[in-house]
């Protein structure tokens, strides 16, 4: 047989040559905005559902407290936390419920932290006064007195027992299409809520407002009882928003990104929230340009400020310089955060991975 030559396919025509355009390098500002919108921002539907569920649970809890303890003048529960103030919720999973403890100011007085055994200006004591004229029983809160002081521990223990043992959470959860579990092992007053579309952790804080102070029943760990933590949260949010309104600034936007970055790095999680807000407020006293187009510059500057504070081991509260917001961090935590942020001041993109 004759050998046939192998068939050769004609070569495909060469595509027309196009000068390749090198990809444009994104600026730090573009990277920050993209990282936030794609990876850190909470979807609106998720945030809305979380708030709706928390309000429904709050209504049920308020009703229970009024029926169970009509003699205790609790105020109306209110929601608090990053999801409501726009300063940096990364997930719709943490909401605080504030439970006002309404005191008769004629029967109670505040003792500053420096004058207590704790010697910590961030913690106050609430002392019962005039017991000789208004004996125990004159205030409905007298049942929570330990050694003449309103005990945050005793109040929390009482509420903890109610949350765990007295409220029919399966029935409430059934009404809301959720499963609600009080956290038994935690000293905090915490509820875990599971819904098809969202999982929530709700923390209840008894709060006393007296003499322009906002005090939470959030005592430190340890042997000292009866202490109330001064909260600057409302003042922080208000001050940042006031400054932004005054100069059309981007402090809130900067904080949203900073909070998102810190919450997504295990080593930096304890910086999120108040420490970042106070760092931005301190920086606002010396840096005037907070316009949107300067966002990346201010982001880097906040990192540098934080490195400086961590080197000293001291971040003074913007509202009371005697308070060190790093006082409860260990040396190891401070060193680890300081090293990570120091590295990031030269290459901020490291924090976006």
How would you describe this structure to a colleague?
This protein has 353 residues and is an alpha+beta fold. It has 2 domains: 40-62 and 70-230, Beta Polymerase, domain 2; 233-352, Poly(a)-polymerase, middle domain (Orthogonal Bundle), CATH 1.10.1410. The protein has 10 helices and 11 strands. It has helices at 28-40, 44-68, 82-85, 152-166, 169-176, 233-247, 251-263, 274-284, 295-312, 331-346, and strands at residues 78-80, 94-100, 108-111, 123-128, 145-146, 149-150, 179-182, 189-194, 199-210, 213-216, 228-230. Strands 1, 2, 3, 4, 7, 8, 9, 10 and 11 form a 9-stranded mixed beta sheet that branches. Helix 9 (295-312) packs antiparallel against helix 10 (331-346). It is globular and about 95 Å long. The termini are far apart. Mean pLDDT is 89; it is low at 1-6.
Largest sheet: 9 strands, mixed
Determine the strand fraction and express it as a percent band: 15-25%
Could you say what the CATH topology of the largest domain is called? Beta Polymerase, domain 2
Class by SSE composition: alpha+beta
Helix content: 25-40%
N-to-C SSE series? HHEHEEEEEHHEEEEEHHHHH
- CATH class of the largest domain, named Alpha Beta
Distance between the termini: 67 Å
Which radius of gyration do the C-alpha atoms yield? Answer: 27 Å
Number of folding domains?
2
User: Which stretches are low in confidence, meaning pLDDT under 50 for 5 or more residues running?
Assistant: 1-6
Shape: globular
Put simply, the count of helices is 10
Mean pLDDT: 89
Number-wise, the strands total: 11
Based on the structure given, which CATH architecture of the largest domain is correct?
A: 2-Layer Sandwich
